[in-house]
Amino acid sequence: MKLYALIAFVFLLSSATHRIKTPPVRASVNYDQLKEIIEKNDDKLYVVNFWATWCRPCIEELPHFLEVSSAYENQAPFQMILVSLDKAELLETDVAQMITKLNIDNDVYLLDDNKRMNYWISAVDSTWSGAIPATVFYKNGQKLHFTEGQLTKEELTTIIQKHL
Amino acid sequence: MKNITLLFIAITALTLSAFKLVDYAPSTSKTTEDVAPKGYAIGDEASDFSLKNIDDKMVSLSNYPDAKGFIVTFTCNHCPYAVAYEQRIMDLDAKYASLGYPVIAISPNDPALVPEDGMDEMKKLASTKGYTFPYLLDEKQDVYPLFGATKTPHIFILHKENGKNIVKYIGAIDNNYANPEDVTERYVEDAVDALIAGTKIEVTTTKAIGCSIKDSRKKK
């Protein structure tokens, strides 16, 4: 019961601060921490894109992901989170540079948990081979969709529309 | 303490629900089904192939009558994960070729999409680094889908049984691409060691992040 109270309190807190634009997050996390961030019970649609600065198809699709994100972020309960799979020590250098270059305003987490890949890749989706890009959609802790490979702007929009 | 218990319950519940989804939910993505190559499963017989090596000669598994098996390694020049594992792939061949399990490296990418994965670049890299194993180009890109390789590096260990090459292990080389000094699980070595010892392979499939295979016919 106390757990529900705690969750309810966190909801209230987050909805209260909802309209205040906070600076985007840039942080290293492990998979357990990431899970708590993307599988929240807050009725928001979370679009979680796994990418890396060296991954060409990822960098190719990011600009239209960002466009879609801007179009939805203030219109709907929606958040796009970018999860970098770069080496941890590159967060302040390569990852930061790419964030500036692509003008990324979304929260970016670097998933620094490479020794447990064999665990968390399957935990994200049993069909994920580990190739990137990969995008997963969550609402209230439920996984709604998973794609390994690029998504076009139209495909991404269709999936979001279906699950908002 | 109570908070920790609550947190533990919450995490356990989340974890359980995640496993439940993975185990029981019907696939939530049509896309995944469309692009996921079928490929080999553990215990399947791998078909032989004939691919061009960096010495311009064609190489097939049947060219190795004395081999007891193979460490088939889909890798390439450009991918940072492949680069990170290059020395370890060379070490695997140095250790296991003489024991009957040579490395057969195959580059699956379309050089039209990734110029540095072309044959000339492969030749340069192999000669600079002194590869002791064949480095083949999957020119028609019809071998990697047969295996079900999706990324580089992606390892398939084969074992010869009654003249057939049986798939015994699919996955990563070890559990730390970034730091070879901090590897705690040596999946490929453990599997080949088990084959040599005639014991059961404990971990037959693993996953790791890798570069998607570049093929203009499919989604990137």
What's this entry about, in short?
Chain A has 164 residues and is α/β, with parallel strands linked by helices. Chain A has one domain (25-163): Glutaredoxin, CATH 3.40.30.10. In chain A, 43% of the residues lie in helices and 23% in strands.
SSE sequence of chain B, one letter per element: HHEEEEHEHEHEEEHE
What is the number of helices of chain A?
6
- What sort of overall outline of chain B do the alpha carbons produce when their principal axes are compared? globular
Query: How many H/I helices of chain B?
Result: 6
Radius of gyration of chain B: 19 Å
- The CATH architecture term of chain A is 3-Layer(aba) Sandwich
Distance between the termini of chain B: 48 Å
Beta content of chain A comes to 15-25%
Rg of chain A, please? Answer: 15 Å
Q: Going across the major beta sheet of chain A, what is the strand order?
A: 1-4-3-2-6-7
CATH superfamily of the largest domain in chain B, by name, is Glutaredoxin
Residues in helices of chain A, as a percent range: 40-55%
Q: How are the secondary structure elements laid out?
A:
The complex is a heterodimer of chains A (164) and B (220).
Chain A: H1 2-16, E1 26-29, H2 31-38, E2 45-51, H3 56-73, E3 78-84, H4 91-101, E4 107-111, H5 117-124, E5 131-132, E6 134-139, E7 142-148, H6 153-163
Parallel strand pairs in A: 1-4, 2-3, 3-4
Antiparallel strand pairs in A: 2-6, 6-7
Chain B: H1 2-24, H2 30-35, E1 45-46, E2 51-52, E3 58-59, E4 69-74, H3 80-96, E5 103-107, H4 119-129, E6 135-137, H5 144-147, E7 151-152, E8 154-161, E9 164-171, H6 187-197, E10 210-212
Parallel strand pairs in B: 4-5, 5-6
Antiparallel strand pairs in B: 1-9, 2-3, 4-8, 7-10, 8-9
Description:
- The complex is a heterodimer of chains A (164) and B (220).
- Chain A has 164 residues and is of the alpha/beta class.
- Chain A has one domain (25-163): 3-Layer(aba) Sandwich (Glutaredoxin), CATH 3.40.30.10.
- Chain A is built from six helices and seven strands; from the N terminus they run H-E-H-E-H-E-H-E-H-E-E-E-H.
- Chain A has helices at 2-16, 31-38, 56-73, 91-101, 117-124, 153-163; strands at 26-29, 45-51, 78-84, 107-111, 131-132, 134-139, 142-148.
- Chain A has a six-stranded mixed sheet.
- Chain B is of the alpha+beta class.
- Chain B folds into two domains: 1-30; 37-212, Glutaredoxin (3-Layer(aba) Sandwich).
- Chains A and B meet through helix 1, helix 2, helix 3, helix 5 and strand 5 of A and helix 1, helix 2 and strand 10 of B.
